[in-house]
Amino acid sequence: MNEVKEDLEQGTKSKIIPPESGAPFNAVEEVIYRRRSVRYYQDKQVPDYLIRRILETGRFAPSSGNTQPWKFMVIQNQELIKEMSRDVVKMMRLLMKFADYIEKGTWWKEWISKLFQRFSNNMFHPVPAAAMKLIAEEKLGVWHGAPTVIFLLMDRRSAGDPMVDVGISGQNMVLTAHSFGLGTCWVSFCKPIGMMPKWKKRLGIKFPYKLVTTVALGYPRGVPDGQVPRETQAIDWYEEDGSFKVIY
Amino acid sequence: MPEYLKCKDWWKIESFRKLGKDIILGTVEIDRAKCKGCGLCAGACAASALELKDKKVKMIDVLPACMSCGDCVAICPRGAIQLKGYFQLKRYFRYLDRGEPSLPRKF
Ligand SMILES: Cc1cc2nc3c(=O)[nH]c(=O)nc-3n(C[C@H](O)[C@H](O)[C@H](O)COP(=O)(O)O)c2cc1C
Ligand code: SF4
Ligand code: SF4
To answer: Do both A170 and A145 map to the same domain?
Structure first.
């Protein structure tokens, strides 16, 4: 306690002052607004020191009760990535045999698809369902040819919502990577890898660990980062004077 | 009660190949004069909604397609692409409480 007090007195830590209204975006805001998912990478590998610098920011994410329930795996073995991608494609193909809403004239598929949607409505939401079809047809890559893939795992025994904690640590790393001019893409179609016994064994994914998601990382082709328009969402606002408003 | 809860077909899951009725795709406008056919946008598109043809890029409007992420807009070195229509789902998966789209705003 004494030390902290001294620090403040001696002014060794400078205080950050909030921006004025209408001031230009600061460096953090710029990175957040410009970050885009990158699906087109150069063949060049990212040097180890940059990857370590990125992983380090993941380590400093907040977590419920400071439990830090994450585990990271860095995969740069191209053969391994290709093999995993092939297996994801195979699994998607299998799935599309039962659930495919887009193909016409197969009423029973449509019926099963609807059932899937009802009982697993996040995974079979129309957007990922459409993406699964693209992956099955190999029109959408799995890790998009990225030279490095970071696997994010969570400790299932952890406090509160470990999946949220892992998500926060992942976004720390993603934003850091973009601030270095690198590209990333969250890839949750890694799910089959976390479920297939073959891969669980090979990668050592076992209790208490569970694969949450992965992040592809590499040097982008072109300059994919840039601002884009996005929809605004209703924000319910309960004001100090007791009144209520909805803003967008 | 919020309006969406009053709606009777809210819970009804529909086949989403019914374009327009149960799903509205995003749309982008490509300025053909500006496009030099580098293909970066097609490579960036997760939905395979863009196709390079005769050294120009054009939109595919069959499912599955554009979810209005803007990745193509951001990557185009010529500024040839603009986001026009926004992805929307109907019935059960309907997006709620959305306002007008905009770029990042400074307050
Ligand atoms: C948890 C999560 C999982 C994702 N999984 C994938 C994926 O498997 N494949 C992919 O191409 N994009 C994936 N994305 C990227 C989204 O498609 C992308 O973030 C979205 O379209 C918005 O575009 P932006 O990231 O360029 O702003 C994922 C994003 C998140 C947050
Ligand atoms: S990125 Fe721009 S210039 Fe290149 S093909 Fe697409 S629209 Fe044309
Ligand atoms: S907005 Fe996104 S989904 Fe639509 S065409 Fe562009 S990159 Fe593809």
So the answer is: yes
- Does a structural domain hold residue A236? no
Residue-range definition of the domain harbouring residue A74:
38-82+140-218
Of B36, B47, B95, nearest to B72 (Cα)?
A: B47
Q: Whose CA is nearest to atom 8 of ligand 3?
A: B45
Domain-embedded: residue B10: no
Q: What is the ipTM of this complex?
A: 0.87
B57 lines ligand 2 (CB under 6 A): yes
In a domain, B85, yes or no: yes
CATH number, position B73: 3.30.70.20
Number of structural domains found in chain A: 2
Q: Nearest ligand to the C-alpha of residue A224?
A: 1
Structural domain boundaries enclosing B40: 28-89
Measured distance CA(A214)–CA(A178) in Å, rounded:
16
Q: Which chain A residue's Cα is nearest to B89?
A: A126
Helix or strand holding residue B22 (H, E): none
Residues with CB under 6 A from ligand 1: A 36-37, 39, 185-189, 213; B 46, 69, 71
Taking CA–CA distances from B44, the nearest residue in chain A reads A39
Query: Which amino acid appears at position A229 of this protein?
Result: P
Distance B83 CA to ligand 2 centre (A): 14
What is the distance in A from the centroid of ligand 1 to the CA of A167?
A: 13
Whole-structure pTM value: 0.92
My answer on whether A187 and A210 are in the same domain is yes
Distance between CA atoms of residues A109 and A98, nearest Å: 6
DSSP assignment, residue A15? P
Q: How many separate domains does chain B show?
A: 1
Phi, psi dihedral angles at A9 (to 5 degrees): -65, -45
A88-146 per-position pLDDT tens digit: 999 999 998 888 777 766 778 777 888 888 888 888 888 888 899 899 999 999 999 99
Closest partner CB to B99 (pick from A39, A221, A231): A231
